[in-house]
Amino acid sequence: MYIITATFDSEAAFARTSELLALGDSPERLAERLGITRDLQVVKEGVVAASFKKVVTDIVRLKHFVDLERQIEDIKSGKTMARFLGAGFKEKQIAKLEDERRKFGSLIEAPRWFYKQPRVQLLSAIRDYALDGSLQGDAAWIEMEESKLVFPIVQMYESADQTFAEALAAQLEKPLKDIDPRWLLEKFEGNRSITFDFEKGLALYYTPAPAH
Description:
By secondary structure, the protein is of the alpha+beta class. 56% of the residues lie in helices and 9% in strands. The chain has helices spanning 10-21, 27-34, 40-46, 53-76, 87-102, 109-116, 118-134, 152-159, 162-172, 181-187, and strands at 2-7, 140-143, 193-197, 202-205. The protein is globular, with a radius of gyration of 21 Å.
């Protein structure tokens, strides 16, 4: 896939992010600065602190699912004591674990719920604005395999990372002005902004296709 890379000014990125996070008491001004006045209701809801304990609960549940998957695979590949107890015992163990796995239902609901939250949508917009406010004039298209791009929240759901989930929930539950700007730039996701690499001073991002 093709994305854009450009150097960015880390101080400007921090300043822009901090400035916007401080506008939690003025959702109208915040929406105007972000250029999303059409989504003012989302901004108003996003500045209000809400509980994100569901994120941790969902990840604990997903971790259980991943563990079940691993157990099933281990039994099928002969990595457990079940291989010494006969084919019938092995089949019963697999059937039992698969039945438990079916009880989980659709796993897509957890990330779907998360990305619909107004605070998540607002923080993504703030992250994108920091990108626009700190880019230099050397933007260039590059080709990169999608598998090499880092999306921290996607990875959290894929790996059932409970430690990351707890840190994520803790930041999201803070008053808007108290959210860590660096965390937002390094550990969150945007609609356009992909990565802020502070060591290299590089940003990776999408850009909308020009209208014809």
